Amino acid sequence: MSSFEKYLKVKKDFIDRNLKRYFSKRGNYSEKLYEAMYYSISAGGKRLRPIIFLSVTEELAERSMIKKLLPAALSIEMIHTYSLIHDDLPSMDNDDLRRGKLTLHKKYDETVAILAGDALFSYAVEVFLQTGVDERYLVQGLRYLIKAAGMDGMVVGQFVDTKSQLFKQDEKTLKFIHTKKTAELIKVSFALPAILLGCDKKKIKEIEKLGLHSGLLFQIVDDILDYTTPSQILGKTAGKDEKQNKLTYVSFYGLEKAKKFAKEESKKALKLTKKIGFKKGNVESIIELFLTRIN
Amino acid sequence: MSSFEKYLKVKKDFIDRNLKRYFSKRGNYSEKLYEAMYYSISAGGKRLRPIIFLSVTEELAERSMIKKLLPAALSIEMIHTYSLIHDDLPSMDNDDLRRGKLTLHKKYDETVAILAGDALFSYAVEVFLQTGVDERYLVQGLRYLIKAAGMDGMVVGQFVDTKSQLFKQDEKTLKFIHTKKTAELIKVSFALPAILLGCDKKKIKEIEKLGLHSGLLFQIVDDILDYTTPSQILGKTAGKDEKQNKLTYVSFYGLEKAKKFAKEESKKALKLTKKIGFKKGNVESIIELFLTRIN
């Protein structure tokens, strides 16, 4: 195991452990709802978003700040999970498998999946508000997070992706979907620590740019993996995008050109880590992982 | 038109006008999503929650504060509407009519309804954060609002109501559902202005109690109306609770006892308005309206 692989494992375990704390058993009436939420939260996610958040935090602040900013990192993972639960629903992407396990509406039913998603989103805000920074930065940070998660961010991305018949299937739409549906929340994972720590605007903008390139890189590789990897390894139904005639980098540009785009985005991101002055190497390793990951 | 009816109309128009401002046309990709959200937001709601919020604000602060607190009032209405959209879905209460118009998934489809609900919830948080008070109170107020809207509030209420087979159909469960599903957000409409204005804890607690009694009153009368009023006047499918074997005050206690409970809650609420020292009469008139409304 390389030292970076070890780093990822330590961070993932740390996040898993802390997420679990937030879903310890509750009162009689809400127990089953928490159980459903935790089923999805604990269903084998790689925790890339909170790991990004923590590795950027380590570049910008003292070690002691990790604990204070942790609720914000966990809330991003909760928002990500809520979006997966709703995206998997029959009236959306209609997926039975996610991360190698049954999706929530398959494990329970649609009622539970819709409400667990709603609950997870509101809980994400509750948990975010436990972040240990000055209220001024807390409000600024929440504005930033919610904008990326809402109807000018993640939700409109999913909307345009699912209701494809309403939109011209061109390059602009492809870029819009990928940016909104995936890249923006990854951007937030990079830039939110800088906002919560009160960094200057210029630095926030640069980290934001780094986040957007990394997010696009992530989604392009996702498109490539959906096309090239068997379901068993992918942990979700592979080739689904193709079957559903989804607009992806592979369907629009072909496999080779998609790979080229991914490489370009990774180069831009890596260049920015140098410009920003990140020194520990973990952020760079995450970007390299985004390019080379197999599932 | 009585002066209170005039008061309600002026307030409702003010809220409608300001809600409209928040849903003015957007970019190409999000236009249809905004359109769907606004369809539900503008579908004839009585705006009781923001009217409560504004009438309590008028009791506690200078007139100039109305404008500053308005985004919080609107965000409560958005959260209320988001919950109606999701509650009406086929896998939930499966309702075709709401406020005399087609429900959102009937007007569009389930995909649009789920996403418009999600978008409305995140937008509610965005709009709430525009409230013009000190960040300390803003954070405190949002914690309060989100707790009532989330999985220890409104969502768990809907969960227990919809998944009734999982829970003992007794008095405790009936009270739990009504408190969580309806009363808590009405409680917030009463108490949130006090929190945002930095009132002392004792006053907040009293207003909260007033809100809970009013909220229970509202839901008991809702049960009675569902049982006694034809769909055409009710603006939604009447007798639905009965058909779905829902636990209501009427199904559990019978009509006469339910009416008695409603009267008791209204008395408790009215007594509290005196204790708190509300002077303008509008809060009292709202409570009386809750008891006497026909739809």
Automatic annotation (TrEMBL), chains A, B:
Gene Ontology CC annotation, any one: cytoplasm
Source organism superkingdom: Bacteria
One GO BP: terpenoid biosynthetic process
Needed co-factor(s): Mg(2+)
One Pfam family recorded for the sequence: polyprenyl_synt
Keyword annotations from UniProtKB, A to Z: Isoprene biosynthesis, Magnesium, Metal-binding, Transferase
UniProt GO MF annotations: metal ion binding; prenyltransferase activity
Family annotation (PROSITE patterns): POLYPRENYL_SYNTHASE_1 (PS00723)
The keyword Disulfide bond is assigned to this record: no
Matching InterPro entries: Isoprenoid_synthase_dom_sf (IPR008949), Polyprenyl_synt (IPR000092), Polyprenyl_synt_CS (IPR033749), Prenyl_diphosphate_synthase (IPR053378)
Family to which the UniProt record says this protein belongs: Belongs to the FPP/GGPP synthase family.
NCBIfam families per UniProt: FPPsyn (NF045485)
Full protein name: Polyprenyl synthetase family protein
Originating species: candidate division WOR-3 bacterium
